[in-house]
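FAQ: What does a multi-protein file look like?

Like this. Sequence, then C-alpha cells, then the next protein.
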Amino acid sequence: MRIAILADVPWPTGAAGSVRVRRWAEELSRAGWEVTVIPIGNYGSNDAADVDQEFDTATKARFTSKFGVLGPGGWSSLTRIAEALRLAKPDWILCYGRRVSTMAACVARRPRGTRIAVDVSEHPAITLWERGHRSLVGWDHWLGARYLLRQADAVFAITPNLAAACQPWTRAPITVVLGMTNSVPIVFSAATRIPHKFGYFGSWHAKDAPAFVIRMAARMLMNDPGATFETVGFIPQKILAALVDSGLDSPRTVHHGAVSDEQLAGVLSSWALALMPRSDAKSARFAFPNRAADLLGCSVPVVVRESVGIASLGADSGVILVPSDDAEGAADMASSILSDQSRLAEFQSAARRGAERNLCATQAIEQAISIMRQARLETIE
C-alpha cells in the first residue's frame, strides 16, 4: 500500500505537529507501506536537507521538499503538489495541518480512486467553529475543512471531544488516536524520581493558566515544607516577575529554561507530579497537549482542570482532576496526593499504564492501518 501525507507543520522542529507526522511516517513505513511526505506551507524551506536526511534515516519515507514548499505561488504551487501526488501514486492521502483550504484544493486534484484520510488534530477551522468563534474562521478555511471531511474515507481525531465536533461534518468513521504527540521517548524509570517534587511544563502564554499555576505552586509549597517546584521552558519576563512576587524564586524552586529532548526526559522523570491546568475551557476541551503526552510518557501524573480535553482519560490514566475555578482548592487537593506516597504511587502507575495504552504510536497506527485497509478492501469489492 502507498500513502502520501500532506503535512502543514513546522520542520524540522519537535513541535507536536511535526512529531505526529513523523510518527505516522515511521509506523506506516514499519508496517510495510510506501510513504511519501509532502510538506505544505512556508515552513522549513531552508531546512529541506536536514528534513530529507531525518526522514530518510528515521522513517524510510520520501520527503518531497522540491515539490512541497507552498508559498504565495498560487496555482503553480498546487500544480507541483498535484504532480507530486501523481508520481507517488498513493492508495491513500493523509491530510494533517492547518491549511485546510490548500489541502482541499490538492485533494480535489488527486489521482482517481485515491482514498482520503484526515487527521483532525490541528484544524482551527473546526475547533474555532465549535467554540463559537465563527467570526474568526475564514470562509475558505471553513469550506476547506467541510470539503475535506465530506471527502474523507477515514477520520482520526486527537480527543473524544474533537471527534464529536467533527461527527456532523462527515459520514466516515471517526477514530480517536491519542498517541504520537510526545517528543520524548516513553520512559518508565522511577530511579531518579524525587519525592515531593512537582513541576510545570506548559505554556505561559495561555489566557489564565499562568496565574492559576503560580497560585497553585505557591500554595503547595506553603502546604508542604519539604516540597520543591520546577519549571521547564522559556518564561517571559512578565511571568518571571510574577513568580518572584509570589515567592517562587526561593531555593525550593528551579527554572530550567529550554532543554533538549534528551535532557527533558531526565528532568520530567524526577517529578512526582506535574501541574497542567490549561486555560479557556472552550479551547482546551479539544486539545491533547504534547506536553501532557511527554509527562505521562515519563509516568508523571498530571493535574488538570475538569474542562480540559485530556480530562476524559481519567484517574486510571494518571490524570488528576481539580476544580476549574479554585486555585487554592486545586492546590490543596494536589498537595494531599503529593504527601500521600501510597496514593501518589498509584497515580504514577496509572500514568504509566495510560501512556502504554493511549500514547503508543505503534498501537495507534495499527488501529489506523486496520481501518484504512478495510476501507480499501470495501472499495475493491
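And here is the next protein:
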Amino acid sequence: MFRTLYSFASSALVAAACFSSVPANAIELCETRFRTLCTNNCYTYSSPVINGTVECDKLNFVITQDAFSAAPADPTLQCSRTTEGYSCEAWPQGEEISYDWYGDDNTAIVTDIINPFRHFSCSAGTVSVVVTGPGGGTSIASATLPACN
C-alpha cells in the first residue's frame, strides 16, 4: 500500500509542478522525457537530469520503462545539509524499486525498504545506497558527507 501511495504522490508532485504556476524560488521542471527500453514485462521509474543548456537550466525528469530483470539505470544519491546532519535522496525512484542503505564501513543501516529518503548524522562519512529493481538487478550510488563542524 505504501508503494502505491508513494507512487501516486510522486506522480502527483511531478504533474503538479508541470501544470501549475511555480514560485520563482521553487524547483521548476523544464521537460519530462520518456525512454522505453522494453515492450513486455516492464517496470517504470523516474530520474532527475540537470540540463545545463542556455535555453533550459531547470530540472528535467526522465521516465524510463525498462525490462523487469534490468537494474535501475544511472543511480544517484543527492544529499543536502540539514540542522541535524544530512538528508539524502536516492534516484531512480519507482513503485517497484527498493533501497539498501550502507554506512561508512559498509555495514547495512537498513535494507529492502521502499523509501528513497534517509537521514544521516554529521559523522556519517561515506554513505551508499544499493538500488534494486523488481527482478533483482542492482545499481549502486555513493556520497561522501563532510563533518558538520
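Q: Is there any per-entry metadata?
A: Some entries carry free-text notes. For the entry above: DSSP finds one helix and ten strands in the chain.
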